[in-house]
Protein backbone atom coordinates (compact mmCIF):
# COMPACT_ATOMS: atom_id res chain seq x y z
CA UNK A 1 0.00 0.00 0.00
CA UNK A 2 1.31 3.49 -0.67
CA UNK A 3 2.21 6.21 0.29
CA UNK A 4 4.12 8.96 -0.86
CA UNK A 5 1.04 9.26 -2.87
CA UNK A 6 -0.75 6.94 -5.19
CA UNK A 7 1.27 8.51 -7.99
CA UNK A 8 5.00 8.16 -8.54
CA UNK A 9 6.63 11.28 -7.14
CA UNK A 10 10.23 11.08 -8.24
CA UNK A 11 12.01 14.36 -7.67
CA UNK A 12 15.52 12.90 -7.98
CA UNK A 13 15.81 14.34 -11.47
CA UNK A 14 14.29 17.82 -11.87
CA UNK A 15 13.66 17.06 -15.54
CA UNK A 16 11.22 14.31 -14.58
CA UNK A 17 9.79 15.99 -11.49
CA UNK A 18 6.02 15.93 -11.61
CA UNK A 19 4.08 19.17 -11.50
CA UNK A 20 3.82 20.58 -7.99
CA UNK A 21 0.09 19.97 -7.92
CA UNK A 22 0.49 16.19 -7.82
CA UNK A 23 0.87 16.01 -4.04
CA UNK A 24 -2.53 17.63 -3.90
CA UNK A 25 -3.95 14.85 -6.06
CA UNK A 26 -2.39 12.29 -3.73
CA UNK A 27 -3.86 14.14 -0.77
CA UNK A 28 -7.32 14.14 -2.32
CA UNK A 29 -7.16 10.38 -2.81
CA UNK A 30 -5.92 9.66 0.71
CA UNK A 31 -8.42 12.05 2.22
CA UNK A 32 -11.42 10.79 0.27
CA UNK A 33 -12.51 8.36 3.02
CA UNK A 34 -10.77 10.03 5.94
CA UNK A 35 -13.09 8.83 8.69
CA UNK A 36 -12.82 5.20 7.60
CA UNK A 37 -9.02 5.47 7.35
CA UNK A 38 -8.76 7.10 10.79
CA UNK A 39 -11.11 4.73 12.57
CA UNK A 40 -10.70 1.43 10.70
CA UNK A 41 -7.28 1.25 9.07
CA UNK A 42 -4.80 3.48 10.89
CA UNK A 43 -4.24 0.99 13.71
CA UNK A 44 -2.01 -0.99 11.34
CA UNK A 45 0.94 1.08 12.61
CA UNK A 46 0.64 0.31 16.32
CA UNK A 47 3.39 -2.30 16.61
CA UNK A 48 5.90 -0.32 14.56
CA UNK A 49 5.18 2.86 16.54
CA UNK A 50 5.85 1.01 19.77
CA UNK A 51 9.21 0.02 18.30
CA UNK A 52 10.13 3.35 16.72
CA UNK A 53 9.21 6.07 19.20
CA UNK A 54 11.55 4.75 21.95
CA UNK A 55 14.31 4.20 19.36
CA UNK A 56 13.98 7.85 18.37
CA UNK A 57 14.38 8.84 22.02
CA UNK A 58 10.90 10.39 22.07
CA UNK A 59 10.12 11.77 25.51
CA UNK A 60 9.40 15.03 27.35
CA UNK A 61 10.57 17.98 25.27
CA UNK A 62 11.67 16.05 22.18
CA UNK A 63 10.98 18.02 19.04
CA UNK A 64 9.53 15.45 16.61
CA UNK A 65 8.32 15.78 13.01
CA UNK A 66 5.97 13.18 11.48
CA UNK A 67 6.26 13.24 7.67
CA UNK A 68 3.03 12.14 5.97
CA UNK A 69 1.31 12.07 9.36
CA UNK A 70 -2.10 11.05 8.02
CA UNK A 71 -4.82 11.29 10.67
CA UNK A 72 -2.17 11.49 13.36
CA UNK A 73 -1.83 8.33 15.39
CA UNK A 74 1.95 8.79 15.75
CA UNK A 75 1.42 12.47 16.53
CA UNK A 76 -1.05 11.61 19.27
CA UNK A 77 1.13 8.91 20.86
CA UNK A 78 4.30 11.05 20.77
CA UNK A 79 2.35 13.98 22.23
CA UNK A 80 1.23 11.66 25.02
CA UNK A 81 4.90 10.81 25.65
CA UNK A 82 5.62 14.51 26.21
CA UNK A 83 7.14 15.41 22.83
CA UNK A 84 6.56 18.68 20.97
CA UNK A 85 5.12 17.27 17.78
CA UNK A 86 4.78 18.64 14.28
CA UNK A 87 3.35 16.86 11.27
CA UNK A 88 2.64 17.35 7.61
CA UNK A 89 0.40 15.52 5.18
CA UNK A 90 -0.98 16.08 1.71
CA UNK A 91 -4.53 15.15 2.74
CA UNK A 92 -6.39 18.06 4.31
CA UNK A 93 -9.17 15.75 5.49
CA UNK A 94 -6.71 13.55 7.37
CA UNK A 95 -4.87 16.52 8.88
CA UNK A 96 -8.22 17.82 10.14
CA UNK A 97 -8.69 14.57 12.09
CA UNK A 98 -5.12 14.77 13.42
CA UNK A 99 -5.72 18.37 14.57
CA UNK A 100 -8.92 17.40 16.35
CA UNK A 101 -7.10 14.59 18.14
CA UNK A 102 -4.00 16.59 19.12
CA UNK A 103 -4.84 20.31 19.09
CA UNK A 104 -1.46 21.27 20.58
CA UNK A 105 0.55 19.83 17.67
CA UNK A 106 1.88 21.95 14.79
CA UNK A 107 0.10 20.20 11.91
CA UNK A 108 0.23 21.37 8.31
CA UNK A 109 -1.27 20.43 4.97
CA UNK A 110 1.51 20.27 2.40
CA UNK A 111 4.16 18.28 0.63
CA UNK A 112 6.94 16.20 2.09
CA UNK A 113 9.07 17.57 -0.76
CA UNK A 114 8.85 21.12 0.57
CA UNK A 115 8.89 20.92 4.36
CA UNK A 116 7.84 24.30 5.76
CA UNK A 117 10.25 24.32 8.72
CA UNK A 118 13.72 25.86 9.07
CA UNK A 119 17.00 23.93 8.85
CA UNK A 120 18.01 21.77 11.85
CA UNK A 121 14.66 22.39 13.57
CA UNK A 122 13.87 18.88 14.86
CA UNK A 123 15.52 16.36 17.21
CA UNK A 124 13.86 13.46 15.41
CA UNK A 125 11.73 12.62 12.38
CA UNK A 126 9.39 9.70 11.83
CA UNK A 127 7.54 8.63 8.71
CA UNK A 128 5.25 5.63 8.93
CA UNK A 129 4.57 4.31 5.43
CA UNK A 130 4.92 7.85 4.19
CA UNK A 131 8.19 7.82 2.23
CA UNK A 132 8.23 5.27 -0.57
CA UNK A 133 10.32 4.21 -3.52
CA UNK A 134 11.13 7.20 -5.73
CA UNK A 135 10.62 9.63 -2.82
CA UNK A 136 14.30 10.17 -2.06
CA UNK A 137 13.92 13.95 -2.37
CA UNK A 138 11.73 13.87 0.74
CA UNK A 139 14.69 12.43 2.65
CA UNK A 140 16.81 15.38 1.49
CA UNK A 141 14.21 17.57 3.17
CA UNK A 142 14.28 15.38 6.29
CA UNK A 143 18.07 15.78 6.39
CA UNK A 144 17.68 19.55 6.13
CA UNK A 145 15.19 19.96 9.00
CA UNK A 146 16.91 17.45 11.31
CA UNK A 147 19.59 18.69 13.72
CA UNK A 148 23.04 17.19 13.56
CA UNK A 149 23.00 13.93 15.54
CA UNK A 150 19.22 13.68 15.17
CA UNK A 151 17.49 10.39 14.40
CA UNK A 152 15.02 9.47 11.67
CA UNK A 153 12.91 6.34 11.32
CA UNK A 154 10.91 5.30 8.27
CA UNK A 155 8.65 2.30 7.90
CA UNK A 156 7.09 0.49 4.95
CA UNK A 157 5.55 -2.85 4.03
CA UNK A 158 8.21 -5.54 3.67
CA UNK A 159 8.23 -8.64 1.51
CA UNK A 160 6.78 -11.04 4.07
CA UNK A 161 5.81 -13.61 4.98
CA UNK A 162 3.31 -12.84 6.29
CA UNK A 163 2.00 -10.17 3.94
CA UNK A 164 -1.78 -10.58 3.93
CA UNK A 165 -2.40 -6.96 3.01
CA UNK A 166 -0.55 -7.42 -0.29
CA UNK A 167 -3.49 -9.48 -1.61
CA UNK A 168 -5.76 -6.46 -1.21
CA UNK A 169 -3.32 -4.12 -2.95
CA UNK A 170 -2.97 -6.61 -5.78
CA UNK A 171 -6.71 -6.44 -6.38
CA UNK A 172 -6.70 -2.62 -6.42
CA UNK A 173 -3.67 -2.58 -8.73
CA UNK A 174 -5.24 -5.15 -11.08
CA UNK A 175 -8.40 -3.03 -11.34
CA UNK A 176 -6.55 0.29 -11.78
CA UNK A 177 -5.96 2.02 -15.10
CA UNK A 178 -2.66 1.04 -16.73
CA UNK A 179 -0.82 4.31 -15.92
CA UNK A 180 -1.38 3.81 -12.17
CA UNK A 181 0.04 0.29 -12.17
CA UNK A 182 3.54 1.49 -13.13
CA UNK A 183 3.62 4.23 -10.50
CA UNK A 184 2.46 1.84 -7.77
CA UNK A 185 5.31 -0.52 -8.68
CA UNK A 186 7.94 2.18 -8.24
CA UNK A 187 6.48 3.17 -4.87
CA UNK A 188 6.63 -0.42 -3.72
CA UNK A 189 10.32 -0.72 -4.61
CA UNK A 190 10.99 0.29 -1.04
CA UNK A 191 10.05 -3.25 0.03
CA UNK A 192 13.19 -4.60 -1.64
CA UNK A 193 15.85 -5.16 1.04
CA UNK A 194 18.50 -2.45 0.93
CA UNK A 195 16.50 0.15 -1.00
CA UNK A 196 15.43 2.16 2.07
CA UNK A 197 18.99 2.08 3.37
CA UNK A 198 20.30 3.31 -0.02
CA UNK A 199 17.77 6.14 -0.08
CA UNK A 200 18.72 7.29 3.43
CA UNK A 201 22.46 7.09 2.76
CA UNK A 202 21.98 8.99 -0.52
CA UNK A 203 20.49 11.85 1.52
CA UNK A 204 23.47 11.86 3.90
CA UNK A 205 21.72 10.03 6.75
CA UNK A 206 23.63 7.05 8.20
CA UNK A 207 21.73 3.81 8.79
CA UNK A 208 21.72 2.62 12.40
CA UNK A 209 19.32 -0.33 12.38
CA UNK A 210 16.80 -2.27 10.31
CA UNK A 211 14.01 -4.12 12.02
CA UNK A 212 10.48 -5.33 11.52
CA UNK A 213 7.23 -6.04 13.31
CA UNK A 214 4.09 -7.91 12.35
CA UNK A 215 1.31 -5.41 11.71
CA UNK A 216 -2.08 -6.78 12.71
CA UNK A 217 -5.33 -5.31 11.47
CA UNK A 218 -8.72 -6.60 12.57
CA UNK A 219 -12.30 -5.98 11.52
CA UNK A 220 -15.41 -7.58 12.99
CA UNK A 221 -17.19 -8.26 9.70
CA UNK A 222 -17.04 -8.01 5.92
CA UNK A 223 -18.63 -4.54 5.73
CA UNK A 224 -16.07 -3.00 8.03
CA UNK A 225 -13.21 -4.90 6.37
CA UNK A 226 -14.26 -3.46 3.02
CA UNK A 227 -14.68 0.06 4.41
CA UNK A 228 -11.23 -0.16 6.00
CA UNK A 229 -9.26 -1.35 3.01
CA UNK A 230 -11.13 0.79 0.50
CA UNK A 231 -10.10 3.90 2.45
CA UNK A 232 -6.50 3.76 1.24
CA UNK A 233 -5.29 6.12 -1.49
CA UNK A 234 -4.41 3.35 -3.97
CA UNK A 235 -8.03 2.15 -3.89
CA UNK A 236 -9.18 5.37 -5.54
CA UNK A 237 -8.15 4.70 -9.16
CA UNK A 238 -9.82 1.28 -8.97
CA UNK A 239 -12.96 2.69 -7.33
CA UNK A 240 -13.21 5.34 -10.03
CA UNK A 241 -13.01 2.89 -12.90
CA UNK A 242 -14.93 -0.17 -11.67
CA UNK A 243 -18.30 -1.21 -10.39
CA UNK A 244 -17.98 -0.82 -6.59
CA UNK A 245 -19.92 -4.00 -5.77
CA UNK A 246 -17.72 -6.11 -8.05
CA UNK A 247 -14.57 -4.56 -6.63
CA UNK A 248 -15.81 -5.19 -3.09
CA UNK A 249 -16.46 -8.85 -3.95
CA UNK A 250 -12.95 -9.22 -5.40
CA UNK A 251 -11.33 -7.61 -2.36
CA UNK A 252 -13.32 -9.72 0.09
CA UNK A 253 -12.43 -12.86 -1.87
CA UNK A 254 -8.76 -11.92 -1.49
CA UNK A 255 -9.31 -11.46 2.25
CA UNK A 256 -11.19 -14.73 2.69
CA UNK A 257 -8.14 -16.62 4.11
CA UNK A 258 -8.00 -13.93 6.82
CA UNK A 259 -11.57 -14.56 8.01
CA UNK A 260 -11.97 -16.80 11.08
CA UNK A 261 -14.92 -18.98 12.02
CA UNK A 262 -16.60 -16.06 13.85
CA UNK A 263 -16.52 -14.00 10.68
CA UNK A 264 -13.81 -11.73 12.06
CA UNK A 265 -11.03 -10.61 9.70
CA UNK A 266 -7.40 -10.47 10.83
CA UNK A 267 -4.54 -9.56 8.51
CA UNK A 268 -0.91 -10.03 9.52
CA UNK A 269 1.73 -8.26 7.49
CA UNK A 270 5.49 -7.75 7.55
CA UNK A 271 6.06 -4.12 8.55
CA UNK A 272 9.71 -3.13 8.15
CA UNK A 273 11.58 -0.11 9.48
CA UNK A 274 14.98 1.54 9.22
CA UNK A 275 16.41 3.90 11.82
CA UNK A 276 19.17 6.30 10.76
CA UNK A 277 21.16 9.22 12.14
CA UNK A 278 22.23 12.56 10.68
CA UNK A 279 25.99 12.80 11.31
C1 LIG B 1 -0.05 5.10 4.09
S1 LIG B 1 -0.57 6.69 4.51
C2 LIG B 1 0.32 6.85 6.07
C3 LIG B 1 -0.26 7.87 6.98
C4 LIG B 1 0.31 7.84 8.40
N1 LIG B 1 1.75 8.00 8.39
C5 LIG B 1 -0.07 6.55 9.07
O1 LIG B 1 0.79 5.67 9.20
O2 LIG B 1 -1.22 6.42 9.51
C6 LIG B 1 0.34 7.71 3.41
C7 LIG B 1 0.15 9.20 3.65
O3 LIG B 1 1.04 9.92 2.80
C8 LIG B 1 0.40 11.13 2.46
N2 LIG B 1 1.09 11.71 1.30
C9 LIG B 1 1.10 11.26 0.03
N3 LIG B 1 1.88 12.04 -0.75
C10 LIG B 1 2.35 13.03 0.05
C11 LIG B 1 3.20 14.15 -0.16
N4 LIG B 1 3.75 14.40 -1.35
N5 LIG B 1 3.47 14.95 0.89
C12 LIG B 1 2.91 14.71 2.10
N6 LIG B 1 2.11 13.66 2.36
C13 LIG B 1 1.84 12.83 1.36
C14 LIG B 1 -1.02 10.71 2.20
O4 LIG B 1 -1.93 11.78 2.23
C15 LIG B 1 -1.23 9.68 3.31
O5 LIG B 1 -1.79 10.27 4.46
What characteristics describe this protein?
single chain; 279 residues; alpha/beta; seven-stranded mixed β-sheet; binds S-adenosylmethionine
Question: Would you give an account of this structure?
Answer:
The protein is built from twelve helices and seven strands. It has helices spanning 22-31, 34-41, 46-55, 73-80, 92-101, 136-145, 164-174, 178-188, 195-202, 222-229, 235-241, 244-255, and strands at 63-67, 84-89, 106-109, 122-128, 146-157, 206-219, 265-277. It has a seven-stranded mixed β-sheet with strand order 3-2-1-4-5-7-6. The chain is globular, with a radius of gyration of 18 Å. It starts with 21 loop residues before the first helix and ends with a strand. Residues 1, 3-5, 9, 23, 26-27, 30, 42, 45, 68-70, 73, 88-91, 94, 111-113, 128-130 line the site of S-adenosylmethionine. The site of S-adenosylmethionine has 26 residues, from helix 1 and strand 2.
Briefly say what this structure is:
With 279 residues, the protein is of the alpha/beta class. It has 12 helices and 7 strands.
Shape label: globular
Q: What is the count of β-strands?
A: 7
How do the helices and strands follow one another from N- to C-terminus? HHHEHEHEEHEHHHEHHHE
For the termini, the CA-CA separation is: 31 Å
Low-pLDDT windows of residues: 1-21
Largest sheet, spatial ordering of strands:
3-2-1-4-5-7-6
Portion of residues within helices:
40-55%
> How would you sum up the major sheet?
7 strands, mixed
Helix- and strand-based class?
alpha/beta
